[in-house]
Structures are given as C-alpha cells and as structure tokens.
Amino acid sequence: MTASVETTLRSGVEVRLEDLRRRYSGVTALDGLSLTMAPGELVCLLGPSGCGKTTALRLLAGLEEADGGRVLIGGEDVTNVPANKREIGMVFQAYSLFPHMTAMQNVAFGMQLHKVGPAERRKRAGDMLELVGLSAHVHKYASQLSGGQQQRVALARALAIEPKVLLLDEPLSALDARVRARLRDEIRRVQLEVGTTTLFVTHDQEEALAIADRVGVMNAGRIEQLGPPTTIYSRPATPFVAEFVGLTNRLPGVVKGGEVEVRGTRLPLVKPDSSDGAAIALVRPEAVTLASDGDMLPGPLIGTVIATVFLGATSRVTVDLGDITVLAQLPTSDAAALTAGTRVRLSLRKDPVLLARDETAPTEA
Amino acid sequence: MVGGRRLSLDWIGAVPFLGYVALFLFLPTVIIIAGAFASEGGLTLSNFANLSRPYIISAIISSVILSAVTAAGGAVLGALLTYAIATGNPRGIFRRVLTSACGVLAQFGGVTLAFAFIAAIGPASALYVYLSQHHLDYYGSGVWLYDLRGLELVYLYFQIPLMVLIFLPAVDGIKPQWREATESLGGGTWTYWRHVAGPLLAPAFLGSTLLLFANSLSAYATAAALINQGGPILPLQISNAITSEVGLHEPGFAKAQAVVLIVIVAIVSGLYAVLQRRTARWLQ
Hints:
The complex is a heterodimer of chains A (365) and B (284). With 365 residues, chain A is of the alpha+beta class. Chain A contains nine helices and 20 strands. Chain A has helices at residues 53-61, 103-113, 118-131, 147-160, 177-194, 205-211, 229-234, 239-244, 332-335; strands at residues 15-24, 27-37, 42-46, 68-73, 76-77, 88-91, 165-169, 197-202, 214-219, 222-227, 249-256, 259-262, 265-268, 277-283, 288-291, 302-310, 314-320, 325-331, 343-348, 354-355. In chain A, the strands form four sheets. Chain A has a six-stranded mixed beta sheet, sandwiched between helices. In chain A, helix 2 (103-113) crosses helix 3 (118-131), helix 2 packs parallel to helix 4 (147-160) and helix 3 crosses helix 4 (147-160). The longest helix of chain A has 18 residues, at 177-194.
C-alpha cells in the first residue's frame, strides 16, 4: 500500500536531520546523515544491520546524543532537548508494553504524564484502542495479548499523547509473516488517519516499499538514495541500492562506448561515462524474458530451467547457462510450462543498468 | 486398559525430588508436630502452654526483630548492590566476580563466620586494640558483638549476598525499552521508578525480603557460636530445651517451639509464593 499523503489531512510537522554524526568506540554509526521529512510524511529508513538506521531514529528521539549535527522538529532545534520533552511517540521492536499495566492503562499512561484528567484519559485511551482495533482487549495485560496485539497497543500508546513525530523502530520484526503484513497495512492506515510525520526503520525491503511515501536506503551511516518506493526499485542510484532492494542478477560483461555487452547483448548504462573494461552488470529478474520455442542451438543465452518458484501472480524461474545461473521473473501464466529441465532462450530487456564495480553514483534527493 | 483413561507417567521424573522433599521436609515436620503434642502418658497441650513463659516470649520477639532488621538491612543493601551489578556489563568481570562471591558468601555461616568476626572486630582483635588506643573504643558501652546487635551485623554478612542472588533475576528482567518508552511518553527518571520499575520490582523485592526473614529466623549455628550465655533467640532456646545440662531436658517443649518457627516460616513462604507468582506473570 503506497497511498498518497496528499489525500489526507496533514497535522504533522516538518522534521529535519542535518549532518548527524555519531561514533561508538571508534566505529562510525552515522556519517553526516541529512534528511528532511515533510509534514505528515512517512519515511522509511531501510538498510542492513549496522548501517546506522536505528541510531538515526534514536538521535531523533533524543535517546542518544549526536556527536555533531542538528535535529529540528517543526522548525525548532531540539538537538539538546531531552527525550521526554520532544513530544515524540515511539514504538519499539518488541516487549515495550509495561507488563504490570493493562492495555488501557498502557495507553493512558502517557496522557497521565501530560496531566490529562482521568475521564479524558479513559475516553482517549478507549478511542485509540478502537482505532487500532483492540476495543475488546482493553483490560488485558501484555502477557495476555499476542505479539501483533501488543504492537497495536504500543502504537496506540505512542499516538495517544498526540506526538509531533511518530518513530517506529522495526515494530514488525518480531511478528510472523501474516501478522506482519496485516499490521503493516494497519500502521499505514492509522498514520494516514492521524497525519503524524513518521519515521519507520526496517531492514525489510518489502515492508519499506509497501508502507513508505519515501524510502531512504542506508549504507555505512549515510543515505545512499532517498526517493519514492517505485524510484528506489526501478531506478536505483547505486549498485548497493540495486543489490539491497529487490533481487538482482550479477552478469559479467564488458563496457565499451557507454554500453555494456552481456553475453552478446548490448545494454545501455545508467552512467554512460563509465570507463571501458570488464564489469558486472546488475540486471533485475523482471528484465529477463524466456522463450522455450524456436531455435535452441547452443549459445550464450541458451540454458536449462533448474527451478520454478510460484509467487502468486508471478513466478521466479532459475536458469542454468552453464557458467552462471540467472533469475527471471515472469507472469505465472508464462512460467507454467517452464518446468525443470526445459531448454529456454533468454533475452535481456534493454533497460539502463548499473555496474557493480562503480561505487560513486550520486544520491537522489 | 479398555475404555479407561491412560495413566500419565510424566510425574515419574519428579520422583527423586518428591522423595527428597518427603524424607527431609515432610517427615521431620510431622515428627516435630506429633512430638509437640506428645507426652509420656499420651497427648498433651502442656508443651504449647509453656510457650507463654516470659523468656520464651522474649526469645520469639527477639527472633522476629533480629530477622526483620537483618532482612530489611540485607534487602536494601543487597538491592543496591544488585542494581550496580545489573546495570554493569552483563559479561563483565565485575558481574562474574560479584555473583560468584555472593554464591559463596550467602552460604558462609556458623562457627567459621562467628570466628571471622571475633577475630576481625572482637575485643581481642588487632583492629579493636588499635582503635581503642586511639580513642575509638567501639565497645565502650559493652561488647555488643555477643548480643543481638552483634548478631544483626554478622547475619548481614550472609543476608546481603543472598539478596543479590535471589533479586538479580528480577532486576535483569527489567527491559531497557521500558525506560525509553517512559521517556518518549514524557516521563523522567522519577516517573520511571515511581510508575514502572518500582511497581515491577516491588513484588520481587518484598518476596526476597521475606526469604531473608525466613533465612534469618531459622539460622542457628552462627548464633550458637557467637552467643554462649542464655538464649536470646528462639533457635537457641530450642537447643537449650534439648541439650540443657541443668535438668531441664524438655524435648516436647523444644518441638512446640519448633512448631512456632514452622508456622512463621510457612506464613512467610506463602506470602513469598503469592508475590513470586504475580511477578512471574508480569515478567514472563
């Protein structure tokens, strides 16, 4: 689900992270990270473990101090403001509900700290639990709720204080796949409804692409590419992004004259000024098509199907070309006949490709 | 077995434990209770009537005070030490050394412990001799090491490490996310302890304090080694009733006193179980 924020009432504020730096005992966690989030926007920071995404979120929350840079919320510099004064709602990875409080008490707790009266607290806590679909569980303790229900309560608790910013630190990672997908959509629905500017941290690319207005792909303490999910997927700015987001075939080729020749097929380059020589072309499985009819004389693009994986509307076919294997993603109706052992002829769609040897592509803002 | 329910054999693994409990807990308890009601001619309540003797009432009160003071002192000091351990590096040498030391010291009692204190701070110790020569006579108003005040100090020596051992799992169960969640909701350190960590740890703290109370109440060897005149606490009175050399050999009366100890410990253990169950539900 990538519903447009423009269709909702925006009550959020702008959030800016400027040149944030953080080191832990000599190891750089954040290396000058900058990010501007529009009011009401949901931005996902996506990256592998240790890339700095959680550090960025914790600096925004005020749970850690930056070595350098600034944090601005609604135009106000909060870099040196303690966490409990930043008006931020946060949902943690797991197990953050107070176990000695019921769901209702958990949600009401933040309002109690903000001096909201008991009657108003109960009403708003009830409303928030209804918003996340847990009206029937208000008197249950955390240990009596499933993992997904606990995270819904945590979301309600974070939103109950009407925060300026909502932070979600891998809130779905401890849940099973079905619950994860359902709660992901639920979080997005609620976020659109309340319009709070939201930063969502995850290492799950599917989650990030499904939920975010914009995705920031992080590597080594920096955002390598920031853009809408479709752009991140279809026009990755760097080889890291291309390989981290979605599946990618790494096909050996030779660069010459602004193109790369891969097994007899010349493909345009994202960056035509790449120097000539051997290189690895990064080709999406969707850019590979297969044909099982016609001439199957031995050639660089003739191979044998070794596996077909049903994914629903599409199927992923693995083809052995002798020296390498190539993944192709096809409509399931086209892949139905491609059982293991079928001889096929590959063709590569002439989309611009990135080269794995090139690590210096610019960041899209 | 047609038509019947199949017998579960799951309990077989617990047989050694159940045998142990039966032999070393239930059987002695039954013997004590039965003996407390027995006399040469049959059943009697006279052993319980004798509990109203003034020196016995005084011993019961002293035992309860001694246990309460050392339980409270051990619990507070032990909790502070536990917090220091729990907030340190979980794999650090500080934690490993302290928890190992607590495991040993919690079991360190009896004659050895009494002698250690006599040698370290007793009236013949080098420390006392040196300090008394420099106008710091801590026995100026009497040698308190050999009365209840001395017992309180000596008992703390094993009560504090015992508190660390039984309270540390509860403190370890407190998750850092709870503090961060409190902060993100607008609370500070006081709020966190007042509304989150405090209520979460309170049952475990109280439960541990009850265990310390029971531990102190039933301690005998240390007191016997340190106090050789009279019997200011109940375990020593029980000993006197059994081993008196002045013709007051009253085994039935000793058993009646032991029943008093059993009742107090049973109440304390019951309260501990209730508190533990509550904590376990929260921290699971």
